[in-house]
Amino acid sequence: MGILMHDWLLTIYYEIAAIDAGVTKRSISLNDDANTIISYYEKGKSIPGQPSMIYIHGFSSNKEAWLSVLKFVPDSYHSILIDLPRHGETTDTNADDHTIHEVVDTLKLFFDTMQMTDPLCLIGASIGGTTVALFTVKYPEYVSMICLLAPPPTKLHESELIKKLHAGMDHILLPTTSEEFYATAELLTVKKVTAPKAFIDRYFKSRLRVVDQQRR
Questions:
Q1: pTM of structure
Q2: Strands (E), the chain
Q3: Smallest Cα–Cα separation from 41: which of 62, 58, 61, 60?
Q4: C-alpha span between 184 and 38 (Å, rounded)
């Protein structure tokens, strides 16, 4: 059972947001023994000659982060919002630790399994932007265009956040207490989070299941 299904409030909220965005939730196995089952949303249909738009979320996020964007994207564009391995509702029973290069190869396998042969438009936020950039370098034949939203900076231009992460302060992105979570929300958002506290608390608790995996 996926992480989002453990809390009825989150489930209902995301179902309503998905309806508002006009997307349909689907899943697909990437191998015969079903070690990895990718969960994703889809909107519109693939049109020959028109790049499908693939939305890649950031670290410790999920595909639902894009729903508020997708409600403004017309059905005439084929859009896919994917949960990366060890995020959201994607099931990954591989015991090995993941690297971003393995995530890139998982994306390629997803596209191959989906038989998406036309060049794609890849849209990545935060570490998703880095994933998109690395994918484009390794598999340029799959890519028509890319859009990078706030990818992590290089060491020459590190932000205070990146410096703290390099210093081992991983609780900034992987909070394990409600106090750390609210501090993270204040640090990473421009506008103050106004969602009800009951919802925010449930959202925080839903992330705890994969904290250890994501830390590795």
A1: 0.80
A2: 24-29, 36-43, 53-56, 79-82, 91-92, 120-125, 143-149
A3: 62
A4: 27
Q: Report the pLDDT value the prediction gives residue 32, as an integer from 0 to 100.
A: 65
Q: Are 132 and 124 in contact (CB under 8 A)?
A: yes
Per-residue pLDDT, 3: 42
In one-letter notation, the amino acid at residue 5 is M
Same domain, 116 and 193: no
Q: Do residues 104 and 137 both lie within one domain?
A: yes
Query: Based on the domain organization, do 129 and 164 belong to the same domain?
Result: no
| Cα-based torsion angle of the residue sequence 114, 54, 192, 216 in order, rounded to the nearest 10 degrees | 60
Task: Answer yes or no: do 128 and 204 share one domain.
Answer: no
Q: Once rounded to an integer, what is the mean pLDDT over residues 94-107?
A: 83
The H or E element containing residue 67 is: helix 67-70
Whether the CB-CB separation of 11 and 89 falls below 8 Å is answered with: no
Answer yes or no: do 108 and 71 share one domain: yes
SS3 169: coil
Mean pLDDT of the chain: 85
Q: Residues in the chain, how many?
A: 216
User: Residue 1 pLDDT > 50, yes or no?
Assistant: no
